[in-house]
Amino acid sequence: MNLKNKKSIKYLQFKNLFKFENLIHFSTTRIGGISSDKLESLNLGYTVNDNPINVTHNLDSLAHSLGFERKQMVSPKQTHSCNVGIVKTENDIFPNTDALVTNVPKVCIFIRTADCVPIILYDPVQNAAAAIHSGWKSTIQEISKHTIETMQKEFGTKPEDLIAGIGPSIGPEVYEIGPEVAEQFYNQFSKDHVVTAIENSDKGLLNLWKVNKQILLNSGIPENQIEIAGICTYSNPELFYSARRDGVKTGRLATGIMLV
Question: The pTM is what?
Answer without folding.
Answer: 0.98
